Amino acid sequence: MIETKSLEDVLEKYEPVIGIECHVELKTASKMFCGCPNAFGGEPNTRVCPVCLALPGALPVPNATAIELMLRAGLAFGAAIPPHSKFDRKNYFYPDMPKNYQISQYDMPLTEGGVVRYWLEDGTRGECRLTRIHLEEDTGKSTHAGSGDGRLAGSSHSLVDFNRAGVPLMECVSEPDIRSADEAVAYLETLARTFRQLGVSDVKMEEGSLRCDANVSIRRRGASEYGTKAEIKNMNSFRSVRRAIESEIRRQIEVLESGGRVIQETRGWDEGAGTTHSQRSKEQAHDYRYFPDPDLVPMDVGADVIERLRASLPRTPYERYVRYVDELRIDSKRATQLVEDAALAAWFDRAVDASGGNALGVAAFVLGDLARLANESGTPIAEGNVSPESLAELVALTSSNAINSKAAKQVLEALAREGGSAKAIVEREGLAQVSDRGAVAAIVDEVLAANPKVVADYKAGKTNVMGFLTGAVMKASRGKANPALAQELLKEKLAG
Amino acid sequence: MDPIRDTARAIAREVNARAVSAADVANAMIAHVERADAGVAAFLQLTPDLMLEHARRADARIAAGERLPLAGVPVAIKDNMCLEGTRTTAGSKILESFTAPYTATAVARLLEAGALPVGKTNLDEFAMGSSGENSAFGLTRNPYDLERVPGGSSAGSAAAVGGFQATISLGSDTGGSIREPAAFCNVVGFKPTYGRVSRYGLIAFASSLDQIGPFARTVDDAALVYDAIAGKDPMDATSVDLAVEPAAGATREDLRGVRVGLVKEFALDKLDAASRASYEAAYADLERLGAQLVDVELPTADYGLATYYLIAPAECSSNLARFDGVRYGLRVEGADVGEMYERTRAAGFGPEVKRRILIGTYALSSGYYDAYYVKAQKARTRIAADFARAFERCDVIVSPAASSPAFRFNAKSDPVTMYLMDYYTIPGSLAGLPSLSVPCAPAIPEDGDRPMPMGLQMTSPLFTERALLGYAHAFEAATQYAKRLTPAKVENASA
Questions:
Q1: Catalytic residue set of B
Q2: C-alpha distance from residue B45 to each of A271, B25, B78, B96, B211 (Å)
Q3: Predicted confidence band at A283 (pLDDT cuts at 50, 70, 90)?
């Protein structure tokens, strides 16, 4: 039986082929085709107007900012922007879709092609081509009452909230280039980080501003034809994406291994059961009767607009990641942490520059004590009192042994409290490490003289008292003695 | 002055001069219209309170020194345009209970110009029809013969102005819904270029064709209304951002130097003898005014009807999907939401609307889309190109506005026979051109014994409304055909 074999074993024979479609709500001030505010939640049906409620006679007017954000998203992945584009109507009846058609894009999307380059947790890299990104509008939300569990089945009536209806939504469709659940998650994480950092979307799966479906099929390794795909829906977190895809791969292998064939259908992921179940077969698929929306005029995106948008693009997380790992030699995990936040990464870059390229030294602070302080205060590093330049100073002071690590912590805390320069704080607080052999030797002598019994113990073979003696030297120096030097001198003198 | 029979220009002049107040005009019309409308039934509802409110507002603004182009002018509004606080039905049971919470841009502009809303007028359901008989709320009668239709779909708006129950009115024209009833009711009906007048607040039938325009008893009044409503609207993405040259007052008294195109495919031999005589007289009038008559061809014009009856239903099948019982209007409960939709739409839509939704759904369906919808779009492009070619040889094209004078009720029970009424108006609609109907010599219908109104259609290149209204004015000034008839049943009223 399949269940007894590990996924790795069966995957020697079969290769999964995965494509991802995701819907991303754009972070605009207003909705896609009207002036209602675009925000999550809120008292039901308070952010509505004749247009997004589809009252008789109301007409859509496109949101220029949404179009620009979408173009930015495409350009960040190297997509082509065709000179002509248009909106189409996708016709089907659904109670939370007020017009009973969705304004979307059919055969002339705003962007075509592009490549999403991503990396996995272990640092391996991959890429997945984009088919297209197109712009459309979100639907409202239905709530089913009277069934006890919020499901439609058995409910007595349904309530519809149209606050979300008309929120700008872009749909990113990938090519079937993904070969594992891990790759799928890595792909999604890259999309999410990039969109967030471009200011395109806040990409919160829990609020539904990022939603994704996966097209999964399997084929025998070496085959050139694709197998029959199933579309997996209802995955509400990256974790469920991973689990759902793995479960679906397993299911399809089991079907093939037991002599069956995979049918083309839509399957829903059941988080509790940990399996997918059939929702709709291809035979029941809708005929959406797409046609160009006569309420909207075709869009011509000029080369000047494309150039302006391209020039305004920030560095992508992937570009940063590659630089950190390949040039700055930061490990994958730390590099990932750094690129997660564009402001942090930019701050980090400045600190590395100011430090003369000591990336590892800067990273140790940024992801260590500085991260802890930022966490405690709730003020992000990039907005806090510690400037990249003063951190670079601190890194220099530490790596030249001018201060010890305990003092470094103190300096950092002072910087976080009041800002200013690290050197000034070291001077003011007298935290400079004492590495002068004579000065430390004098303190060592003092300590040895004051603890004759401990000295005797040491000489009798109880070498574990060394810790106590080092501590005493540090204490006597008010923490400033270079601890390594103190130990060296202690050993020397005790041996003598 | 006579607030019932005078022109909009005359009323506005008197009200602006404070010779008479807008409130006086409103009161006179309120006193008149209810009885006057009893036979014609142009209105689905009268709005006397709103009329008085707007009259007071106009008077206050004039007292404060403003000059309003339509000060105190009573206007009737086709009931497919939203007017805040009024029931807005589109002539359909499905919207019987719908009260508009906002006002259509064209209506708002008219009211802002000082016009007073008399009421909302009857129409073929969702503007689908050529006789007014498709309204869910009863028949409107032709003010010149109560046994005959007023034309459609802007039945009530044409009848109200023709019957002196409003000075001006707004209609909408998708394939002839302003021009044909204008011809039947002895008034000027004007469809501006597609995109000239905002459609915001106009309940959509076919979005790529619908256009709001005025009815008036004179060309000059129609131009006054056009000037008030035309121009870019940020709420309608298809409204055109192009400066509007004021058309009112752009009058001309002759047609010297104007090349008037007669379309070979619109030869008058398709018409009955009386209609033919009316148009032959009109063409002679044009020549007498100095126009040079030239023959032009529209080889694809015969495909107009077929093209229109694919594109318009396709768009309507999608536009009318929103009437589903979920948010407003009629709801007939069912076991689940699907059954609720079916019952609501079965009960709420009339047969013609259902027919067009079915045709349109079919034309857009997978497997048929290329053969029907795409083909129709290609034909539409060819028709527009034919017009462009014809306009290289002429400045304006004239033709009959309708295939016959007003016919009797139930005379055209076969839908295709009814569709043929718009044979002359549809090609210009498909090309988006400005087009109007101006009264020409009345003619005795084949099935009648007294003359009925007739309309001459004039169509000009895109965005040449000002010139078009000028030609119509010259024809009107020289012929005065409208004055040859009086409505069958109009109350004698004076201020």
A1: 78, 153, 177
A2: 57, 19, 11, 12, 23
A3: low
